[in-house]
Amino acid sequence: METNRKIVIYGSGRYPRDFLYVFDSIQVACYVDDEEHGCIKSFEVLQKDRNKVFVIICKYEEKKAQENLRKIGFKRGIDFVSAEALFHTLDFPIRNIAAKKDVYVYGTGDVSHNFFHNFVEKNPDIEILGCVDSNPEKKGKTFFRRKIYMPEEVLHSPDSFFIIASTLYYQEIKENLLKYGKKENEDFISCFAVNQWASWMMRETIYDVPRLDYVCPKPFQDAALMHEGRLSVCAGVRDVENRNTPLFYSEFDHVWHSNIMKILRLSVINGTYSFCDEQKCELKYNCGKRTIDTNELHYSMHKSKSQLEYIAKKDTFSKDMVFHDTNYNTREREYPEVVMCSFDRTCNLYCPSCRSQRYVADRKQEELLQNFTDRIKAELLPHVERIKVAGDGEAFASKVYRRILFNQELSRHIRQIGILSNGTLLTPSNFDKLAENYNSIKIFISMDGCTKETAEKLRAGADFEKWKKNMEYLGHKREEGKIDFFAFNFVVQRENYLEMEEYIKMCLGFRADGIKFSQLKRIGEQSVEEFEQKNMFDSDGNMKPELEKVVQNELFRRPEVHLFTWINW
């Protein structure tokens, strides 16, 4: 938005506060509303400043506000605009670029296929002139009805813009573009940055219903580095990391302060928690008067705008919700306090609830992971106080995770380390190496059985007897105070639910501080039929009778046991 006039916000209450938290570069001259109250003037004062002000409408009852402005001679687009009409400016300006330059997609592999399917075909007004690929066998062929060019055919043109749709070869493509004098963000960008998620997320939380009067600190101080280096803030975020530009292709500062992260933080400040999953949230049990109803989450995808305006207006002024202006002053730290590394899927096991075969990064993928690890070790990890490792693979099976865990330089300033592991490789020697480097260690172990037959079936590739010896050693170290927190996780399913009681006894024998039972999720290659056969919950999320009978045992009332709730490690 470019204007030489003074900016006036038409509206009061939550909407303008939400809007200006994200659009924080806008300099506001004054606020007006339908009725004068406090420092808010009546919109009629605008009449005398007709040619000196530009109005942004921040009201749920937008149509009425537009009518009021038209009555005093204001014209839409010339003298005023709705706040929602500016949401698209939060996205990468690919439409503006496509109107001035020839846009090519660089790459014709799986990433490019997904980009065409999920973005290009859904935005036919954005013209993609062609594709670029260095494979000579593809020259002259087509990809999604676009001609494939060799790099040397199009890279010389000053009027070209390139969307890099490749993961493994991103760095090579980038270096090639730089050799031709191309500049990042001006002449090329990663396809992961070309999306419309920021505008969608802004609308989602603006029109969502507030649920909590508590500000969760995690979006302001925690960072989770997920698959492909995508940035999230915690495990409780509902897939927002898939909407951000991965750190593989962008600087940490750029993503940490991005529009998507701003909106995620706003959803916490305004109490909507629009992108949070209550089943994964460790804080929801002590965070305010109201709890999150998962049936409400993302309801706005299925309601009309008029319905949204009515619901949001009604709930905004509800007497049982208190919004504090000071909440909107909350800003993220320069660097996060806690970083979770969960970006390598490499694992020594292949559990049916997770994957069908053992996964080890190939040479090209490992090179990418190594480069990324070197970057975060230099740019990010020296500034944080605590790190957690793994969650998407096995901490001690991954070469890149071991480079973090056993790095003496990092251990000099990191106060605490947390490890999420299946425990099979957490041998006495590996633990002793950690103990040499870190003063504070937390360990969270995943195992889905307490008998050899069950454990080795559900944790394929494990040696249960060796695992128990590792746990006995760690139990002694917990007793000695060498481990600050020692917890276990058990994914409940048809094959193991009858072992839950004995699992508790076994873990208590290992001096466990926490024992968490998790609900089975349908991931990996399971069919719906296979999942339903294994799942111990019905379609409404309630325990099946046979499971409900098991958890009546007094063991499940012990303070160490967390039955299908979060455990903070």
- Classified in CATH, the superfamily of the largest domain is Aldolase class I
Major beta sheet summary: 9 strands, mixed
* Rounded Rg: 27 Å
Spans where pLDDT lies below 50 across 5 or more residues: 285-322
CATH arch. level architecture of the largest domain: Alpha-Beta Barrel
Strand content: 15-25%
CATH topology of the largest domain: TIM Barrel
What structural class results from the helix and strand content? alpha/beta
Binned, the helix content reads: 25-40%
Q: What's the overall geometry?
A: globular
Overall residue-averaged pLDDT value: 87
Euclidean distance between termini CA atoms: 45 Å
Alpha plus pi helix count: 20
Number of strands: 20
For the record, what CATH class of the largest domain applies?
Alpha Beta
Overall structural domain count: 4
Explain what you see.
The protein contains 20 helices and 20 strands. It is of the alpha/beta class and 569 residues long. A nine-stranded mixed beta sheet has the order 13-12-14-15-16-17-18-19-20. Strands 8-9-7-6-10-11 form a six-stranded mixed beta sheet. It has a five-stranded parallel beta sheet with strand order 3-2-1-4-5, covered by helices on one side.
